[in-house]
User: Which sequence fits this backbone?
């Protein structure tokens, strides 16, 4: 009942959303604060045109998780929203609903002390609100994807473990473990505030343990990543292979920056949207 009231409140708050993208503010009952987000809503004409030629095929909701030094505005600033709109208008990508969120250095997880339930906000407030506001997009795990970069790559792997998403693209993921010595001290502070240093208590959020659940999984990284994530991604892929966990490892030239992330996201957008014939899949779109 409480969740239903929260969703109704969110629907009333943002009932004026229009097609396109821009920085919005959504109030979270769980977090007791406003959360800046960017939403891409496809043009109605693109939706009608696509559905007329692809009847019965669900349209996707994609959750986009920025990195530690990035925010929802970067989804627009770096050209990803414009690319989506152009490709939807041209009919080369199916219309899709995207939301990029603010992380508050939460690592996209619920704080161990219960004081900041960010994962619950995403799964219990934000996604239900979007699916109520935009029926026909998402609605069930097979029609949802999650993706992110750096801290957001870590968050995408963790959210994939929940079973709420069918596909996960994690770029330059922070493949961390306690005592979190892999990151600079100022980032370590946010990790210690969120997670326990006890490996057993951290295990539910440890990508090396849960391997992103059962979602279709792509892990990618720039080969010149300044944090040395190439080795970590290769080790992660080897572990997945040992455990018979399907994974596509995608290493491309580039660093830990948008010069790598933007073109890589564009390459994998068709896959995130469930298009057959996209990288990592076979056949052609019906």
Assistant:
């Amino acid at each position: 009942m409480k969740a239903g009231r929260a969703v109704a409140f969110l629907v009333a708050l943002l009932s004026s959303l229009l097609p396109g993208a821009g920085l919005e503010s959504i109030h979270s009952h769980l977090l007791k604060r406003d959360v800046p987000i960017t939403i891409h809503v496809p043009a109605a004409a693109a939706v009608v045109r696509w559905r007329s030629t692809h009847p019965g095929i669900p349209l996707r909701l994609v959750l986009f998780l920025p990195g530690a030094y990035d925010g929802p505005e970067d989804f627009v600033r770096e050209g990803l929203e414009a690319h989506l709109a152009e490709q939807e208008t041209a009919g080369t990508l199916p219309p899709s609903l995207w939301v990029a969120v603010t992380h508050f250095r939460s690592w996209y997880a619920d704080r161990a002390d219960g004081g900041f339930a960010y994962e619950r906000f995403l799964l219990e407030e934000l996604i239900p609100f979007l699916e109520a506001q935009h029926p026909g997009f998402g609605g069930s795990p097979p029609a949802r994807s999650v993706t992110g970069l750096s801290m957001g790559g870590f968050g995408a792997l963790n959210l994939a473990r929940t079973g709420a998403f069918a596909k996960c693209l994690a770029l330059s993921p922070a493949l961390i473990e306690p005592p979190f010595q892999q990151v600079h001290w100022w980032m370590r502070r946010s990790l210690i505030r969120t997670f326990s240093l006890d490996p057993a208590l951290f295990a539910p959020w440890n990508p090396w343990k849960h391997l992103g659940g059962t979602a279709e999984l792509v892990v990618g990284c720039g080969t010149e990543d300044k944090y040395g994530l190439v080795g970590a991604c290769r080790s992660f892929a080897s572990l997945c292979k040992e455990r018979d966990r399907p994974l596509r490892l995608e290493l491309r030239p580039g660093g830990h920056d948008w010069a790598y992330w933007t073109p890589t996201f564009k390459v994998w957008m068709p896959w995130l949207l469930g298009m057959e014939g996209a990288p990592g899949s076979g056949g052609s779109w019906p």
Summary: The chain is about 40% helix and 15% strand. The mean pLDDT is 89. The two ends are 40 Å apart (CA to CA).
